[in-house]
């Protein structure tokens, strides 16, 4: 069992480690977090922002097998009094720039990037699913580097998502040990405490998590090895320093060439019909274009029975965007979506407890948008329309890819 201290600081640490599910997903739907270690994915070549120095004679990372763990125990919860306790004051040292020979990872879809040692490997973790719960798991990046002893490696898992994404983030339970709060690190513009899971005077895991307006993070480090047991695993001091340097290098992206998380997606771009913007979409969707009366350009994406309609017009034109008639149901706000690198209100149409339509409206520069997702009433009766969580998530991904053209 995880030992429980009676200090409010330790109770706050416990709260932070419940996936950050209570801490960073407070306004989202209830989600079941993934297991302590994610499934294996194929490694990729990471692009470097600066020239990467030749590999040194550092030990090669070992395969990322999961160490044997003690029986997982759900983390304790805090009382209301403890939950309302003031934040601990943390003042980390100013973050220094990452070494020039470190490689650079950039995620354009989520708007951030970070640096990592050139001797470390990187794996993109996308389109993941919790096989036990059958739920989508947040995108992530797994870094693997050498540990202090031969046959062991250090793994750093960085999970991230937009607040509106219906994906699980973090871990629900931890192996045996005691949670300690350590010196703070800086993540983007915030100083955050580092939580360490200790067992038998060894550091077993390190956690940091935070929620920003447009992005949520859960970052975890542990030691792994092919024949490494939980009792033997111990994170060395040098790994703590590398962990802090990687977190300190996380920045917002600004004109940096990015690794494409969706390399098989197509790109929509038409300067003649709909000038001024572009977006990405899965290759499983079909795109067509038309002009409605009195001249509003429309881009229509279709997949199976689903229809995603993109209407756009120049600001100041007289015609209105949106459907000519609204189907039966109740319209209400349902969270936020990322669009044109901003958060916009997501609206839904609900009828008889079924989600019939999702739409967003937004004005940026001299363009006005109306984007709606529903099912084709010519293929499926209106009473049977019910948008699935998977198709809603796919719409959020498409919306997040919209960009203005230079």
Description:
The longest helix is centred in the middle third of the chain and has 12 residues, at 237-248. The protein has two domains: 8-252, no CATH class; 266-404, Mog1/PsbP, alpha/beta/alpha sandwich (Protein Transport Mog1p, Chain A), CATH 3.40.1000. The strands form six sheets. The protein has a seven-stranded antiparallel sheet, sandwiched between helices. Strands 17-18-19-23-22-21-20 form a seven-stranded antiparallel sheet, with helices on one face. It has 406 residues and is mainly beta. Residues 1-95 have low confidence and may be disordered. The chain is built from four helices and 24 strands.
Q: Layout of SSEs?
A:
Blueprint: H1 8-17, E1 73-74, H2 80-83, E2 103-107, E3 112-116, E4 121-125, E5 128-130, E6 135-137, E7 139-146, E8 152-161, E9 173-174, E10 178-187, E11 190-199, E12 202-211, E13 216-225, H3 237-248, E14 251-252, E15 266-270, E16 274-281, E17 286-292, E18 296-303, E19 306-314, E20 330-339, E21 342-351, E22 354-364, E23 367-375, H4 389-400, E24 403-404
Antiparallel strand pairs: 1-9, 2-3, 3-14, 4-7, 5-6, 7-8, 8-13, 10-11, 11-12, 12-13, 15-16, 16-24, 17-18, 18-19, 19-23, 20-21, 21-22, 22-23
């Amino acid at each position: 069992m995880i030992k429980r201290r009676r200090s409010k600081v330790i109770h706050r640490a416990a709260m932070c480690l419940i996936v950050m599910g209570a801490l960073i997903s407070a306004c989202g739907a209830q989600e079941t977090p993934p297991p302590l270690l994610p499934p294996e994915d194929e490694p990729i070549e990471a692009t470097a922002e600066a020239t990467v120095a030749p590999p040194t004679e550092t030990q090669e990372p070992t395969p990322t097998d999961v160490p044997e763990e003690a029986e997982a125990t759900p983390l304790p919860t805090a009382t209301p009094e403890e939950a309302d306790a003031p934040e601990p004051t943390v003042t980390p040292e100013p973050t220094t720039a990452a070494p020039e020979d470190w490689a650079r990872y950039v995620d354009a879809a989520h708007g951030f990037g970070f640096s990592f040692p050139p001797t470390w490997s990187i794996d993109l973790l996308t389109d993941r699913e919790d096989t036990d719960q059958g739920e989508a798991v947040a995108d992530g990046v797994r870094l693997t580097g050498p540990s202090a002893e031969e046959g062991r490696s250090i793994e750093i898992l960085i999970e991230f998502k937009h607040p509106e994404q219906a994906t699980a983030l973090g871990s629900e339970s931890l192996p045996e040990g005691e949670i300690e709060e350590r010196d703070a690190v800086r993540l983007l513009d915030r100083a955050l405490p580092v939580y360490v899971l200790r067992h038998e005077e060894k550091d077993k895991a390190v956690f940091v998590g935070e929620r920003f307006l447009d992005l949520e993070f859960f970052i975890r480090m542990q030691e792994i090895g092919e024949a490494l047991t939980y009792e033997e695993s111990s994170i060395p001091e040098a790994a703590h320093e590398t962990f802090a340097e990687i977190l300190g290098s996380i920045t917002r992206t600004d004109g940096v060439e990015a690794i494409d998380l969706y390399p098989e997606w197509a790109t929509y771009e038409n300067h003649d019909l709909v000038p001024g913007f572009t977006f990405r979409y899965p290759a499983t969707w079909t795109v067509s274009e038309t002009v409605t009366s009195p001249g509003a350009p429309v881009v229509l994406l279709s997949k199976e029975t689903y229809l995603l309609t993109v209407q756009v017009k120049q600001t100041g034109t007289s015609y209105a965007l949106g459907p000519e008639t609204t189907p039966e149901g109740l319209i209400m706000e349902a969270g936020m979506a990322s669009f044109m690198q901003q958060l916009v209100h997501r609206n839904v149409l609900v009828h008889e407890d079924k989600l019939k339509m999702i739409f967003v409206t937004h004005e940026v520069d001299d363009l006005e948008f109306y984007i709606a997702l529903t099912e084709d009433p010519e293929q499926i009766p209106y009473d049977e329309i019910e948008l699935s969580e998977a198709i809603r998530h796919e719409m959020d991904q498409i919306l997040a890819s919209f960009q203005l053209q230079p």
